[in-house]
Automatic annotation (TrEMBL):
Species per Swiss-Prot/TrEMBL record: Amycolatopsis dendrobii
Keyword Translocase: no
Protein name as catalogued: Amidohydrolase family protein
Domain of life: Bacteria
Record keywords: Hydrolase
Domain Amidohydrolase-related: 47-401
InterPro entries cross-referenced by the UniProt entry: Amidohydro-rel, Metal-dep_hydrolase_composite, Metal_Hydrolase, Metallo-dep_Hydrolase, OTAase-like
CDD domains: Met_dep_hydrolase_A
GO-annotated molecular function: hydrolase activity, acting on carbon-nitrogen (but not peptide) bonds
Amino acid sequence: MERFQVVGATVADGTGRDPADITVPVEDGLIARPGASGERFDADGLTMTPGLIDAHVHLGLSSPIEPQFAFRLSAAELAADIFATAGAALDAGFTTVRDTGGIDGGVVTTIAKGKVRGPRVLSCGPVQCQTGGHGYYGAEWEPTELWSSHHIPGLCALSMQSGNANELRGNVREAFRRGASFLKLCVTGGVVSGHDQLTDTQFTREEIAVAVQEAAARGTYVTVHAHNNEGIRNAVEAGVRCVEHGTDIDEPTAALMAARDVALVPTFAVVEQLLRDTAATGLNESIRERVLGVRERMAEALAVAKNAGLRIGLGSDLIGPAQNHRGEELALRAALETPMDALVAATKTNAEILGLSGEVGVIAPGSQADFVLWNGNPLENPQLFSDPANAIVVVKAGRVVKDLR
């Protein structure tokens, strides 16, 4: 259908306004102005939201992680898992995702061409990490220069290693050559790491500034994986535009982020995933010990960030094969804030962070016709977001890509 009208739904438009019973016309892939004609699309009793946006995904980590990096899985199986995860994201109501490390440009273009089902994908390509830092999963005996042999051109490439500013400059230029639309750097240790601690800082301020300079030259930005305050402050002072995780953000750091208009994307669902079943991700059970306490600290950091007035997006950070319940991130955030706060974070605010404001994230004339029709009202029962079966209809750019009516 190129032209139709959705009638009968209660519409939560992503702006934070109260839901309203309105007709939503669609024409040529866009939300049309009120009064436009078209075939009737019956949505009686359903709740409409904008297509959800996940600002922190890892499509390239859709297989058991340790077997993947131990070369025990074929490229065919890795590809099958990546595209299955992309389709599952769409079925869960996510029409746009920002991949923060793991895929190569071929995945983005294959989905964009419609050859496989999936959301709109923005990608940083491989993550930029310092030699041996977070994002490196090679064996301790493996020489650093062999790490790039873990990449499968056009499919998956988790990270690139840089030992100094000049190497980082070369690597980010290579990432852009491969199709990256923004950059991600790891500036602290991580939860899912083999060679560092959460308290470690990685890359110097001067090194981070090199990536910021290269991104600015292409009209884009740098986001950073960061848990501790020293790493976050280094990155913010170097000019990055976004912080992922932000587990230990304190009031002075939040104030610095607010002064520089740096956004935050917390990631709660991956913490729940790892606490529930670490082995299911294909990681060693020892990782579980690193997760303990992160959920509580991230919740405290979220409250500090809200008090500071930061723009706060939403990301799941799910890894491994079990990425079918991506919407759990909204339910977890709703419990810490309100269901409407979670929805706005996953739509309008995430669109702003991704540089897609006005294009996606809201139901308004001229925006992409990306929306979800939910069975029930997830603003009254946010657990509905967690189960893809509740996303009865999913529309991406005016095309019905799922319909369980």
